[in-house]
Write a structure and sequence with these properties.
By secondary structure, the protein is an alpha+beta fold. The protein folds into 3 domains: 114 residues, Acyl-CoA dehydrogenase/oxidase, N-terminal domain (Butyryl-Coa Dehydrogenase, subunit A, domain 1, Orthogonal Bundle); 106 residues, Butyryl-CoA Dehydrogenase, subunit A, domain 2 (Beta Barrel); 147 residues, Butyryl-CoA Dehydrogenase, subunit A, domain 3 (Up-down Bundle), CATH 1.20.140.10. It contains 11 helices and 10 strands. The strands form 3 sheets. The protein has a 4-stranded mixed sheet, with helices on one face. A 4-stranded antiparallel sheet has the order 2-3-7-6, with no helix packed on it. Strand 2 and strand 3 form a beta hairpin. Helix 5 runs antiparallel to helix 7, helix 7 runs parallel beside helix 9 and helix 8 runs antiparallel to helix 9. It is globular and about 80 Å long. The two termini are 19 Å apart.
Length: 383
C-alpha cells in the first residue's frame, strides 16, 4: 500500500475541497436547518462526474480507483455530510451492484443516466421488521406474465425523496416454492411506486430520506438484477462496498469538526490567553488528529484491497466501525472545546455532532460490524 498520496489523489482532494468550500460551505447550515435538498449544487456536481465516480468511462463515468472515490466523499462530507451521503449512496450501493451484477442491457439502460447525475439512485433493503436482520424482508414480488408485481414498504431510504432508480429487495418464489430474496431495478415512474413524507431526522437533514411504498407495482422481468434468489449475495457484496463510503463520510465529518475546533481554539481567549495554549485543549487536539490519521489509513487499506481484487469485507467493516466511532468522538470533543457555543446552531460543530451519530447506525450498526469482523477473524487459519 502506498501511504503517501500520489499526485492524482492530491489533485482530486484539492479540486473537491475547492468545490465544496465554494458551493456547499455558504449553504450547509441553511439547508440543514430547513431540510433543503440543494438541487442547483447537485446539478453542478453532475458535470464533475461525482455521480459516476467509479463507473467506466464507456458509460460516461470517471472510472476512479476506490481511494479517489473515498477522497471525494470525504471532502464533500467535511463541509456538508448530507450531500456526501447523497453521493456515496448513489455510487456505493445503487451504481455498484449494477456494475457487479447487471446484464449488458441493464448497464446500457441505466448506467449512463446514473453516471451523469441525470438520474439519482437509491438502495432499498430496510423495512420495519428488517433492519440489521436483512433476511427478514417482507416486500413481495410475484411473477405475473412478463412482470413481477411488487407489494411492500421500504423505510429510511436515503435519496428516497428524489431517486429515479431504486434497487428493491423483495421475496420471490423459487421453482420449489421456497421464498427467497431477489433484487429488482425499479424506476420511480413505474405505476404503484409511491413516496412517503420526508423523515424529520436528527442529522443529515438536507438529504431527502423517505419511505417507499409499492402497491401492485409492475416491474418487467428483465429488471431482475442477477438471478432469482441472489438477494442475499448481492446485498452482502453491496454492503461491503457501501461501508467504504460511510467510512469516508465519517472521516470527512471528523476532519471538518477538528478543523473547526482548532480554528476556534486559536481565536477564543480565556484566562487572558488562547484556548489553544491550554494543555487540556492540546491533548484533545492531539487525540483528534491521531485518531483521524489512523482512520484514514485503515480506510485506504480497505480501498486498496478492493482495487486489487482481494477480499475486503472484513477490512471494510473495520474501516466503517473505526471511522464512525472516530467521527462521534472527534465531533463530541469539538463541541466540548467550543463550550456553550458548541451547543448552539450558530456554530457548525453541533451539525457535525448530529451528523456523526448516524454513521454508527446505517450500512450496518457498529454491533453488526463487530460481528462481521469477529467471524472473519475466527474463520482464518492464519491471523
Amino acid at each position: 500500500m502506498q501511504y503517501n498520496p500520489c499526485m492524482k489523489h492530491k489533485l482530486i482532494r484539492a479540486s473537491t475541497r475547492s468545490f465544496a468550500e465554494a458551493e456547499l460551505a455558504p449553504i450547509a447550515a441553511e439547508i440543514d436547518q430547513q431540510r433543503i435538498f440543494p438541487r442547483d449544487v447537485i446539478a453542478k456536481m453532475s458535470g464533475l462526474h461525482y455521480f459516476g465516480l467509479q463507473t467506466p468511462k464507456a458509460y460516461g463515468g470517471a472510472e476512479l480507483d476506490s481511494v479517489s472515490a473515498a477522497i471525494v466523499v470525504e471532502e464533500l462530507s467535511r463541509v456538508c455530510a448530507a450531500v456526501g451521503l447523497c453521493v456515496t449512496v448513489h455510487n456505493g450501493v445503487a451504481v455498484y451492484p449494477l456494475l457487479r451484477f447487471a446484464t449488458a442491457r441493464q448497464k446500457e439502460s441505466y448506467l449512463p443516466a446514473l453516471a451523469s447525475g441525470n438520474a439519482i439512485g437509491a438502495f432499498s433493503l430496510t423495512e420495519a421488521n428488517a433492519g440489521s436482520d436483512a433476511g427478514s424482508v417482507e416486500t413481495t414480488a410475484v411473477k405475473q406474465g412478463s412482470n413481477y408485481i411488487l407489494n411492500g414498504t421500504k423505510i429510511f431510504v436515503t435519496n428516497g425523496g428524489v431517486c429515479d432508480v431504486a434497487l428493491i429487495f423483495a421475496l420471490t418464489s423459487s421453482p420449489e416454492h421456497n421464498l427467497q430474496s431477489s433484487v429488482f431495478i425499479v424506476e420511480s415512474k413505474f405505476p404503484g411506486f409511491l413516496r412517503g413524507e420526508r423523515e424529520d431526522l436528527c442529522g443529515m437533514r438536507a438529504n431527502p430520506v423517505s419511505s417507499l411504498f409499492f402497491e401492485d407495482c409492475p416491474v418487467p422481468e428483465e429488471n431482475l438484477l442477477g438471478k432469482l434468489g441472489d438477494g442475499m449475495k448481492i446485498g452482502l457484496a453491496t454492503l461491503d462496498n457501501g461501508r467504504l463510503g460511510v467510512a469516508a463520510q465519517a472521516l470527512g465529518i471528523a476532519q471538518g469538526a477538528m478543523e473547526t475546533a482548532v480554528k476556534y481554539a486559536r481565536e477564543r481567549q480565556q484566562f487572558k490567553k488562547p484556548l489553544a495554549s491550554l494543555q487540556t485543549i492540546q491533548n484533545y487536539i492531539a487525540d483528534m488528529a491521531t485518531e483521524i490519521m489512523a482512520a484514514r489509513l485503515l480506510l485506504y487499506r480497505a480501498c486498496d484491497l478492493k482495487d486489487a481484487g482481494m477480499p475486503f469485507g472484513c477490512e471494510a467493516s473495520m474501516a466503517k466501525l473505526y471511522c464512525s466511532s472516530v467521527a462521534s468522538r472527534v465531533s463530541s470533543l469539538a463541541v466540548q472545546i467550543h463550550g456553550g457555543y458548541g451547543y448552539s446552531k450558530e456554530y457548525d460543530v453541533e451539525r457535525y455532532f448530529r451528523d456523526a451519530r448516524v454513521t454508527e447506525i446505517y450500512e450496518g450498526t457498529s454491533e453488526i460490524q463487530r460481528m462481521v469482523i469477529a467471524r472473519a477473524i475466527l474463520s482464518r487459519s492464519i491471523l
